[in-house]
Amino acid sequence: QVQLVESGGGLVQPGGSLRLSCKVSGTMFSLNAMNWYRQAPGKQRELVASITSGGSTNYVDSVKGRFTISRDNAKNTVYLQMNSLKPEDTAVYYCNFITFGVRYWGQGTQVTVSS
Asked: What span, in angstroms and rounded, lies between the C-alpha atoms of 86 and 14?
């Protein structure tokens, strides 16, 4: 059974940092491209960052230079390091991957950026 479990969210002041983790089980993690999405209240879910099985990364323009996605295949875990956080980064963050045409999601972790 495939499971994705996110952690690391919380309340942080503007300019602060958080590191999100997503531990994956039940699949050949190293073979999958992994994604982080976020969904703010009243908005559509958006793709924030992606990392391929080979380690190539991609980011939405609004987080370039502030967020870093990485993976540790030995730990079956993908990370999202978020620096210089802004109030507009407030959202529920989800990790995700697709395999054999099936899209898998974690339960999400809340990130709130507020003074």
From this structure: 5
